[in-house]
């Protein structure tokens, strides 16, 4: 969560500098700057995920060296999951909490011609992002562990795609549907990487031992 | 500081403030409290460290008496186990401190966001005499710096005063002061807080009920904090009084002064705990020489029955180490007295060498805990509360400060595990908190607001 926060800080610093240095009246330029800010922020988030991976790797090596039987009390997969959840929670909290605070107060949604589904779609979008961050954490760490660069690239591309799809808002079908599809794909992929299989799932659902 | 924070001063200050006039012109002892806290923390830590050191030697002697061949093996496995346990329970310690700090912050933020009283400006403390209503920025900055200097000097004076009192063994005075402070905090501030909360939610309460509630709350609090009580109840009370103190600070410190004071306090904490001639260091060393526990009701203890140790006045006040080592029961109580990390193992083994290892380890596990000064709680909550109060109603800033402080606490605990001596808990967390507050408020907020208005997600 802290690492996500720092990446957000740096990316907003860049955006802020860019905005201050440019003409505030120029609408398309502002929009362009915003898009640039979003993409840059995505790239920074992934970079910080990588940094976090490096840090956790060192921590695991330390734990292994100090433990009696040569294996650390927490595995890299668990750390990947926790890192993903941390990123997701922080990103979700930052996206949603002001909205929730405003939702407590009086007001009418979309009175100025914006979509009336603003709160609902924000909630769904946040939820999908949190899930995605969790799955991306697992995929990313797995890719780093096994030196499969294409997995890491896939995570970055997916993140860019999801962020990019939100540019279609308020045309929600353009952003929510692809995001959910990507989430399902990422979920299946992460599940398979974590050692699950269709058989395990079937057995679990049928409550067999 | 990790270990102690003297809360009494702060409690006393507000007391004076209230009794003089509601214009809140009386000096408060928060700074004092801070210094005390720092000193307490340092003292406690150093004390603990000395205890560890002194306990190791009798332990080794005891081991040697038992079986010579077993000694080297025992010692090496002891060290290994200690390291492992330290690391394993390092994470547990962190969680044990996260929960109370989070609770305190939640209480403060919830109150700030809902009760108007604590964000209204109704005068200033006498320690911050310069007003911030000046027209120019430079003048305002100058005033806040002057306020900070006055506050910090008050803290330093109070700390030195406490060190002198402690040096010349004026224990009764100190205990009386502590009791008076916590009395004031538990009764008067709770009364005001309850009054404001009831006003906000428009709930009517008659005076007899109020009297009953406040009397019970205060009396149980006094007993819990200064004498014996269930550990969780004591922890809850300490959290509540820290939150009350933080709210007082948030209300009565002017804007810029508050931020400058936070920064200056963390620098002072750093210097007072680590410099060889610092008052806190001297306090710690004096306490170590006398092998005494530090004052009650000033630290948050996450696992020990601190009050059990205090129940025996001679062991608590002046008992030399021999007394505590002789009887098995005294040894057990000494074991229960505050100590940190691996001192536990050696202490338990020394008085009762025949006890089986497993039960000893169990004892250690359940009694190992971490101590954090109450002043740390207070200043963390002041930072987060100020962020909640003044950050243009933005929750992101509050959240960012909260995460920053917790990460700072994590790092401090990590350093504590590495260095195993008294460490100031304020600097890292407050630095992170301040950095994140200012950067989030000025940089991240416009970015996130623009993103939210276009409903873009990053």
Question: Summarize this, please?
Answer:
Chain B: One of its GO terms (molecular function) is aspartic endopeptidase activity, intramembrane cleaving. Chain A has 209 residues and is an all-alpha fold.
Mean pLDDT across residues of chain A? 82
- Could you give the order of the helices and strands of chain B? HHHHHHHHHEHHHHHHEHHH
What's the N-to-C terminus distance of chain A?
A: 36 Å
Strand content of chain B: under 5%
Distance, first to last CA of chain B? 38 Å
Shape summary of chain B: globular
Please compute the radius of gyration of chain B using only Cα atoms. Answer: 23 Å
Which residues of chain A sit in consecutive blocks of at least 5 with pLDDT less than 50? Answer: none
Percent of residues in beta strands of chain A: under 5%
Shape of chain A: globular
- How many helices of chain A in DSSP terms? 7
Total strand count of chain B, please? 2
Largest sheet of chain A: none
Biggest β-sheet strands, sense, barrel of chain B:
2 strands, antiparallel
Structural class of chain B: mainly alpha
| Rounded radius of gyration of chain A (Å) | 20 Å
Membrane topology (chain A): Multi-pass membrane protein
Transmembrane segments (chain A): 31-52, 79-97, 117-140, 152-173, 179-202
Signal peptide (chain A): 1-21
Protein name (chain A): Gamma-secretase subunit APH-1
